Amino acid sequence: MDINRKKISVIGAVRSGIGAAKLIKKMGGIPFVSDIASKEKLGDEISLLINEKIGCEAGGHTERVFDCDLIITSPGVPNDSYVLSEASRRGIKVVSELEFASWFCKGTVVAITGTNGKTTTTSFCSHVLNEAGMKCYSAGNIGNAFSEIALEVKEDEYVSLEVSSFQLDHIEEFKPKISVMLNITPDHLNRYDKSFEKYINSKMNVCKNQDSNDFYIYNADDKRVEVNLPHHSVEKIPFSISKTLSYGAFVKGDKIMFANSNNTRDIVCSKTELSLKGEHNLLNALAVVSIAKTLGVENSELRKGLESFEGVEHRLELVREIDGVKFINDSKATNIDAVWYALRSFDGPILLILGGKDKGNDYNKILELVKNRVKKIYAIGSSAQKIYDFFSDIISVEKVDSLESCVQIAHKDSVPGEVVLLSPACASFDMFDNYEQRGKVFKNEVKKL
Question: Residue 420: which residues within 8 A CB-CB, separation 6 or more?
């Protein structure tokens, strides 16, 4: 795509926006970055843009943002925001940073989406491919923005790309070689006019441009995924922990299997050889097995990667064990389904830290697990009262002003064999910049104990 001398406005001055602006400049375009956040809040980002000699503004969108040939939007910008609505009214083309970066990437893209498990699976995929000697970058909703690495990727290299529904909202030509649908559960409905159907449609954009030369890997145990299979000619490869498949990755006894399209079956490894534990991580591993086998990775190389992957920060991460009490950082659990998996991962009594910015949570989904596995809940953030009202008749709930205080109180309340689990079920934006900052605060406080 030739953008030389084109004026391109970028909405959002954080990670993906800065990546897009730098890529525009490298490709000869004229970037202008605009953000509604104040200069004070965007201090480091604004300084970076100025040092790169990239035009920018903060504290609101002026008319200058519409003096352009194209607008690139960051995933955090709502579809109904003034700036995107006005761009549409004026006939200015709007694409996502994901779409824009894909124009310049020559490598093979594996696009991984779903409501839960994206970050772990994206990192897992990259790890396995790199262990097999196939150069693979991790990018997208994880680590580097796609725009930051798009030009680095050579034709014989790979990108394991975490993609969110927000990034998929404004795509036109984005066409991964492999797309992966891990699961679909209600999330971010405040962004989609409380319409689950709109959220599903955004997720399904991941494969809308694929054809018979491409692959769609999907969770056959998820009913919503099954009923929303693409109808076009992309080759569909299921994975399952509950079914024996004629094609795809599945579990038989204690073995992880892969059934090839030529009716042969490979034993990939034993479940016990996986470094990550838990049902959710078994599903993630099956997705990665399907990706690797589709790309021709030999079983011996695949097994090496499956055994050595240690997980990602902020997702069921063991921070410390103190006097027989495990402190687990699951800050990335920003919805109810992620918490459901987290609660199923531990047998011992759990002291659960819940709360933050509620996204329309229905706590009934975890009610039985809370009854059976949770000793006490510490409710934090703007959703603390909702959590208290829902659970206080069932188990002990304490409203706490800060995450730091939660750690201190839970430490005093715990006894050997128990688990202190930060798994908030909520966004972090009422108290923190993002889930990473929330997780780091938790970890720092635990390390002080």
Answer: 325, 326, 327, 328, 350, 351, 353, 407, 410, 411, 414, 446
